[in-house]
Amino acid sequence: KGQNKRVLVTGGAGFIGSNFVHYWHRQADLLVVLDALTYAGHRATLADLEGADGFKFVEGDIGNAELVSQLLTAYEIDTIIHFAAESHVDRSILGPAAFVQTNVVGTFTLLEAFRHRWEAQGKPEHFRFLHVSTDEVFGSLGPTDPAFSETTPYAPNSPYSASKAGSDHLVRAYFHTFNLPTLITNCSNNYGPYQFPEKLIPLMCVNILSGQPLPIYGDGQNVRDWLHVTDHCEAIATVLQKAAPGETYNIGGNNQVKNIDIVQQLCDLMDELADGLPISPARELITFVTDRPGHDRRYAMDSSKLQRELGWQPKYDFATGLAQTAQWYLDNEAWWRPLLERSRA
Ligand code: NAD
What we know:
Elements: E1 6-10, H1 15-24, E2 30-35, E3 55-59, H2 65-74, E4 79-82, H3 89-94, H4 97-120, E5 128-134, H5 159-178, E6 182-187, E7 189-191, H6 200-210, E8 214-217, E9 223-228, H7 229-242, E10 248-251, E11 256-258, H8 259-273, E12 286-289, H9 304-310, H10 318-331, H11 333-344
Parallel strand pairs: 1-2, 1-4, 2-3, 4-5, 5-6, 6-10, 7-9, 8-12
Antiparallel strand pairs: 9-11
Bound molecules: nicotinamide-adenine-dinucleotide (NAD).
Residues 10-11, 13-17, 34-38, 40-41, 61-63, 83-87, 102, 106, 132-134, 164, 187, 189-190, 196 line the site of nicotinamide-adenine-dinucleotide.
């Protein structure tokens, strides 16, 4: 009791981080969000928690060593759940520097500050640094290759995945070199509420609602393994509570879908759910565009280690989760419209 109860959540105003904060905050005595509020972070997503007991929001950069070490000391943090990152592959092609800065240098800064606090406290066994990462570090699969496991060699292909791979390696090294109690989770593509409308599913939802073209890279046959964000949050909580320090776990939905199939499903869902779309049937908006450079063809995650060792199972059925997500974007234009306008300004 009293362990892993004083938690720093980095990137808690972003998509997965904010879903995790809502999912987990009652389990902590104190939950501090540290978020730089980049284009992807939105404080309004956490508005319901402002002023709540045991919740604090701090606007700041994970690369600010002084700020991070002050927070760890002042709030007596024993656990970091590290979501903060530059997360969009297309942006990493246009401007890779921010990815190296936040994902590599930022993660290093957090690790150093946490190590100093852990050592100053006499290396308590219950401290944890849980690093949230991606399946993209493993590269791309051919159509019949087996899914990625925890022992698949790293082979990142984009500046985004390379910067996440770099951060994973630093976290691993801090366990092996300093015995810092770290954990790594690598997860497949997430979907659900509060995802910034530049990623496939929310982008298609808001473009259908606005009557804008639905751009699909290449031939649309790229395959991703989709997991509902709530299932991801549950997996993170399971790893935090049950995994041995130094472990890594793959998280996936065992749910491989082609991009074109997702977009067509979303078109049909929105035709059904929305009254008076600007263009209907929405499939008329589908437009194939030049493929993304270095576009990985297929990802698939084998999460049997997590299921076998720690007893986690995904709960969401994809068709239901996708319909709920489409309905959420339909109902929450007041959330996404200002974010889009801010990012385009
Ligand atoms: P996101 O882009 O929605 O949110 C990132 C958050 O980090 C934002 O709130 C942003 O303001 C904050 N941030 C960015 N730079 C910062 C900095 N220097 N200091 C402090 N805060 C900063 O991302 P997401 O989709 O929620 O992803 C969260 C984590 O999960 C990332 O580490 C990502 O690599 C990983 N991940 C994402 C997916 C996915 O499908 N979205 C899948 C697997 C893993």
